[in-house]
Write a structure and sequence with these properties.
Layout (H helix, E strand, L loop, with lengths): L3 H47 L29 H25 L8 H6 L6 H22 L10 H4 L3 H10 L3 H13 L5 E8 L7 E7 L9 E8 L6 H4 L3 H8 L5 H13 L12 H5 L15
Antiparallel strand pairs: 1-2, 1-3
Helix pairs in contact: 2-4
Amino acid sequence: MPSSTGWVQSSTNLCCSFLGFWVLRAGIVKGDRRVAQKQQQSSQIEEKRKSSGRRDDVDGTYALPKLPFEYSALEPFMLERTVRIHHTGHHAAYTSRMNSVIAHMSTDVGRNPLQHLMHLDDLIDEFRYLFRNQGGGFVNHAFTFYVLGSVDQTQDEADLGPKGKVLELIEDTFGTPDILIERLSSTATQVFGSGYVWLCLANKASSRRLHIVHTANQDSPLSDGYRPILGIDLWEHAYYLQYQNKRTEYITTWWQLVNWDRVNRLVDAWIETEGSSDDFGDGSLADAAGDANGPDSDVTREEL
């Protein structure tokens, strides 16, 4: 039988062990909570960046821009499934491949995608070809998605048409919006293969005239000195699930989806910066379009 002194010592040691365990556990739990809080904060920051289309300051990659509308918002004129696949499949793929190209570029790494497309000739041949396709796909999709908006069938037809600065430019160039629609639609209908048809300001945005521009594949009008304010995607993946080979019907219907408020923001942004992307921050479309808040959306500038 152990002595009373030994029993007391054993009890003391046991108590100290238990006390040490709980102190250690408390420290671990507190530390875990701090780590968890930091991880949550980092996760929230990263999630916000991922929805913005902006560049990560650490690894230099760009995130897939979040759409300024829900996937189902364009129905019945554009299927939810079409928009979802187009965004999470095609646009996401171009985003990923553009980031891979940027990661291997050793020159002009400080430029944003808009600037790279404006100055393609500054890139060496290998990267010029790659960025023309992958960077072009990233930027072209960002522009064409941005100018679409949710369908409000309660509004009068007159309220859904062009207004403000873009209406003035349309009238100065074409005479009426109907003439613009007819000419741009005709150009789009005649496009062979894949590509886009754009409504653009001239370089430096010094002219009050607009230009209808066709680009093949993922070529960007930025590379030819134009500043896009409106664009229709003519790749089959943009419409085939719903319209199949009826491209003309798709083109006619597409006009009902144009968000003219956002078109006006692009007009204002190009005029304000005189056609340069140098003042567009990190090159995200939110910077190009200025304030992204509109009457039909609660999307903030940071979410574009």
